[in-house]
Amino acid sequence: MTIGFIDTGIDSDSPEFAGRLSSASADVAGARGLDNPDSDHGTNVAMVAAATRDSLGIVGMAYNAIIAMFRADSVGSCATKDANDPKSGCKLADSAIAQGIDQAVTAGARVINLSLGGSSASTVVRLAIARAARANVVVVVSAGNDGDSTEAGVDPNNPDPFATGLRQSGTGNVIIAGSVDKDGAFSAFSNRAGAEANWFLSARGEKVCCVYDNGVLKITTDATGARFQYVFSGTSFAAPQIAGAAALLIQAFPNLTATQVVDLLLRSARDAGSTGADTTYGRGILDLAAAFAPQGTTSLAGTAIPVPVTDTTGVTSTPMGDAGTRAGSIETVVLDSYQRAYGLNLAVGLRQAQVQARLAPALAANNRNLALGGGKVALAFSVDAAGRIAKLPWTGQLRLSREQAEQARVLAARAVLQLNPGRKLGFAFEQGADGLVAQLQGRDQPAFLIARSPLDDLGFGASGQTSFAVRESLGPWGLTFSAEHGSAQAAARVNLATSASDRLPGVPASRFGLSLDRQFGDLNGALGASWLIERGSVLGARFHQAFGARGAESLFLDASGGWEFLPGWRLGAAWRSGFTRPHAGGLVSSSGSRLRSSAWAFDAQRNGVFAAEDSLALRLSQPLRVDRGGLMLNLPVDYSYATLSPVYGQRLLSLAPKGREQDIELVWRGGIWNGTAMASLYYRKDPGHYAVLPDDAGLAISWNRQF
């Protein structure tokens, strides 16, 4: 960027400006050249704004900026400086100032620094400021150094009339600069914001380093050997810090207009003094880091869909395990409220499914299981056994209010009916269809505490489930149709700027299946296929609305079998293979978006180990896991300020974990002491498909008796 300076000239030989002095620079008040032996004011101002970054001396705010210096001090005025009169010395004529402003605009300056002050600006200067505003140029002007003045007619509680007049002549493109010290305390010498508080910005202008002598830092040593560097103070040196900041913003974000740059610097200022704009600091103290940070709500480039940078971008499901931590970089582009482009790594906002402990919940659930059967009807219930209903007041009515029903609700229920010798029908509440199908087919499966059956595992939690199944006997074969519907639940908490809740609402999920089974003597087997339809999730995973994900469809192929090779002995195996196709839409591309998943188990069971009614069973299993695949996202990956439009590219969000959970469990069940006992010994490798988690091992012993 080119920064224009209307000042007293510049040390053109200083290495701090080497190669960056604009050829348009000129003496607009005479024919003396840019170097001024009587004043280093212009040099010091330019140093603060744009001294080079060369590991020597000082570095300016915009250290690569082009410097367009327009020397405007009246001939001979700087030589009249009187050390006892701070108002003596360099004088700048309004005509020269106006000419310098116009020539800076012509030279391509996007920012003009006016470290000047004094009485009201003439019409010629005000008109030049108006022309600069129309040319989309930011102007920064010093507030003045009369803050501690007691001179008659001087108002320290407002900026100099010169600064006020320039601000009024601009159309939102002028900032008035006041001074603070290194600790942010307002400088005693600086004019205060006063009536111009909304356009006043404070910056470091007190004891600014450093004065140069022949191109090097000016340092002296006293008699004690102490070294002193010369510093300078004044609102003249607060202004170029703001001018340099404006140049950096325009360079980084070329779409910004002058009024937007001014608004951004004022809006992002660090509040000081009284809360909000006040009559001392104005809008606050310059905060360049805050000015560069996104402002307002960010949205995905090319869309109006908000994507706050602090939002959770997705919640993976249990079959995806640690995939979120391995997603690497999924870079995209978002725009802030000023339409500035920022890179955003979507992978940073991913949340992984929370790994749930298996043992404690299995033992601590205060539920009671009830089973009734007789003839052609079998009923099973799981009810809340916490006794809350007993604490409710008796109303004398044989019905429950809605609140009471919630407190005493049936947690799960299943009903199976024999309609005729060849047809069975089942219904279930808060249970999936897989258990119904197994019961209708008469599959004998050992019960385990930790190791799950692959044929009862979709990999994500659901609530409000209702399911249905009907089995028709076809000679030695059985054909079962099943259906279920529920609400898929997110597997982790989220952070969304648009929601006060950290929980996502459930989304609908339905599944329909067919299964064919047959008994071959001591062998039994079943083959099944089911179709899962998700409205808003992908195998249980949830993604930010900006993705435009429309859900997914999955095909599951199942196989199971059992062999009672000896009396009391049984071997069993089950396999589930899933093929998931996310629906295309929004950022999700139809090409390359697919998942492959699998689950399996092998069982061995011995009945009558120590007594006629006990059993010992061993299972080795893998819960449902994504083996490969993910979402192919069509993302804005770059942004053109020339066309104000994004550039798109495809990026794969892999949802396959590195970890692979494998469970082994040994369970004994039997009767003892007039009750039912269970002992389980288990081991889980990579719990939840997280490779970094320590393996989980445990022992559970329970004894149960009903009275």
Write the SSE topology:
Blueprint: E1 2-7, E2 26-27, H1 41-50, E3 66-71, H2 94-106, E4 111-114, H3 123-134, E5 138-142, H4 161-169, E6 174-180, E7 200-204, E8 208-209, E9 212-213, E10 216-217, E11 219-221, E12 227-229, E13 231-232, H5 235-252, H6 258-267, H7 288-292, E14 299-300, E15 314-315, E16 331-335, E17 341-345, E18 350-351, H8 359-364, E19 367-374, E20 377-384, H9 402-407, E21 410-420, E22 423-429, H10 433-441, E23 462-474, E24 477-488, E25 507-520, E26 523-534, E27 542-543, E28 552-566, E29 569-582, E30 594-607, E31 615-640, E32 645-654, E33 662-672, E34 675-685, E35 696-704
Parallel strand pairs: 1-3, 1-4, 2-3, 4-5, 5-6, 6-7, 15-18
Antiparallel strand pairs: 8-13, 9-10, 11-12, 14-16, 15-27, 16-17, 19-20, 20-21, 21-22, 22-23, 23-24, 24-25, 25-26, 26-28, 28-29, 29-30, 30-31, 31-32, 31-33, 33-34, 34-35
Helix pairs in contact: 1-5, 2-3, 3-4
Kindly describe this structure.
With 707 residues, the chain is mainly beta. It folds into two domains: 2-79 and 87-292, Rossmann fold, CATH 3.40.50; 359-704, Porin (Beta Barrel), CATH 2.40.160. Helix content is 14%, strand content 37%. The strands form seven sheets. The protein has a 16-stranded antiparallel β-sheet that branches. It has a seven-stranded parallel β-sheet with strand order 2-3-1-4-5-6-7, sandwiched between helices. Strand 28 (552-566) and strand 29 form a beta hairpin. The longest helix is centred in the middle third of the chain and has 18 residues, at 235-252. The N and C termini lie far apart (86 Å).
